[in-house]
Specification:
Aspartate Aminotransferase, domain 2, Arc Repressor Mutant, subunit A, three-stranded antiparallel β-sheet, alpha/beta, single chain, seven-stranded mixed β-sheet
Length: 479
């Protein structure tokens, strides 16, 4: 196992109290005991793992020695370090956990987590929607609750949502899922054969990369906005089986694809017969004062596939998403879903049907707060870390920060030891690039974001970077 892969498996191992070598040994012990590192697995050399984790070699040596004494690993001169026990023949009994799964694990109370971006508390309108949904359930007498394509009321609400946005849609063109991640997974199952090519942006949403890799896709990266898409389709060779992009408030850069580029992408995909997924989960999150985003790609071509969810606009715990596509695609997804799940959560779908007509108003109400927090974090980071490149976004939930030197993977480890969990850029780039970037979300309250900037400045100084002088904010003029 390579050092980068093991570092991903370790997750936020250093977010605790005590010597680093004991924290590292504890996390390795857990991976061994739970079978994530099966017997016979070769572990990285001391120096290589230390470099990936941004720690001294002595930390890794001490952790390995601790596990060696416990009998969990074996270290031999000339043959390296391995998990104790013979390698199991045949298929592995475990599966590689996706990188982002580690981001959802419980953390030390003192760590400020900026890796997963979603509202942290449900708005009052969600509680009201559930009350209405439960009152509707009280009158149900002839419904088994099995709806593989989704409850009809929610399918109608999603269809109306797209029709209002300039994409005429009927309920038969809508498929309801248990969130955006399930939508991506089902679309990958529907379109991708093992070894088939999927075109993605570099960087992009890491959950999409994991969904496509789970189905053994060969990922081919293009710049943000799928720049070069048309030329790629004209290149002789195997046609891509699928293309994926985040056209509105791109994750992680916040970019918005112009209307003309959307039209050209949709036309090129339709002409080549390549399904084109437009991930709209972040589309409603435009800041106050910004121009409204262009229509979905589906407005420019019937073969474009739109997907969305309520997790970013309402609450992450509301696991309701959807796919809007041609009816044959919807029918195919329903057949695939029924093999594992005869229908989604009925009360949640009824609540979502109540919520969806008001989601755009909710996002407009919160737009000023999101913009203020975006501006606040940028200002604090710029004041303390003037060497960092922090472009402004027009919406969404994240900043895409370029470090002046070093790499995001090792700096993320240093930042964690200073109490901030950030997402390194390499995990968002299928081409192996973006190593000099980190992703931060700005959804926390201003006081927390100020503390984030202070901790990151301390981490950068420890990492070997120079920080700016802590200049006090100017006094407001009396008028």
């Amino acid at each position: 196992m390579g050092p980068a892969e093991l570092a991903d498996r370790l997750g936020r191992w250093s977010a605790g109290r005590g010597p680093l070598y004991l924290l590292l040994a504890a996390r390795l012990r857990r991976l061994v005991d739970e079978g994530e590192l099966p017997p016979g697995t070769a572990l990285p050399p001391d120096r290589a793992l230390a470099s990936a984790l941004a720690v001294g070699r002595g930390t890794v040596v001490a952790a390995y020695e601790q596990l060696s004494v416990e009998g969990r690993i074996v270290r031999r001169q000339g043959s390296g370090t391995r998990v104790a026990g013979p390698a199991h023949p045949g298929p592995r009994k475990t599966t590689n956990a996706p990188v982002f799964l580690h981001l959802l694990e419980p953390q030390d109370d003192d760590v400020i987590v900026l890796t997963c971006a979603a509202p942290t508390s449900p708005p009052p309108m969600l509680l009201t929607a559930y009350e209405r949904a439960l009152s509707q359930l009280a009158t149900v007498t002839d419904d088994l609750g099995y709806h593989p394509s989704g409850h009809w009321r929610l399918r109608q609400a999603v269809a109306d949502h797209y029709t209002r946005r300039g994409v005429p849609t009927v309920p038969e063109q809508v498929f309801i899922t248990g969130g955006g991640q399930q939508a991506l997974s089902l679309l990958a199952r529907a379109f991708v054969q093992p070894g088939g090519t999927v075109l993605v942006e570099a960087p992009t949403y890491p959950g999409a990369l994991e969904a496509f890799r789970e189905h053994a896709a060969s990922l081919e990266a293009l710049p943000v906005g799928l720049e070069g898409f048309e030329a790629r389709l004209r290149t002789p060779g195997r046609r891509p089986e699928l293309a994926y992009l985040v056209a509105t408030h791109h994750n992680p850069t916040g970019a918005v694809l112009p209307s003309l580029a959307r039209r050209r992408l949709a036309a090129a995909a339709a002409a080549a017969g390549v399904p084109l997924i437009d991930d709209e989960v972040l589309a409603p999150l435009t800041f106050s004062g910004e121009q409204p985003a262009p229509p979905p790609l589906a407005a420019f071509g019937d073969t474009a596939i739109s997907m969305g969810s309520l997790s970013k606009s309402v609450w992450g715990g509301l696991r309701v998403g959807w796919v809007r596509a041609a009816q044959p695609v919807i029918n195919r997804l329903a057949r695939l879903r029924a093999v594992h799940d005869l229908g989604g959560n009925h009360p949640a779908q009824l609540a979502a049907a109540e919520l969806l007509p008001g989601v755009e108003d909710l996002c407009r109400e919160t737009a000023a707060v999101r913009r203020a927090r975006h501006d606040h974090l940028r200002a604090e980071l710029t004041r303390r870390l003037p060497q960092w490149r922090i472009p402004a976004a027009a919406g969404g939930q994240t900043l895409w920060v370029r470090l002046p030197h070093g790499d995001g993977d090792s700096f993320a480890q240093t930042a964690l030891r200073h109490g901030v969990a950030v997402l390194p850029g390499s995990g968002l780039d299928a081409a192996g690039g973006s190593k000099e970037y980190i992703r931060l979300h700005f959804l926390a309250d201003p006081d927390t974001l100020t503390e984030v900037a202070r901790r990151l400045a301390a981490a950068w100084q420890a990492y070997g970077g120079e920080t700016g002088r802590d200049v006090p904010a100017p006094r407001a003029m009396a008028v």
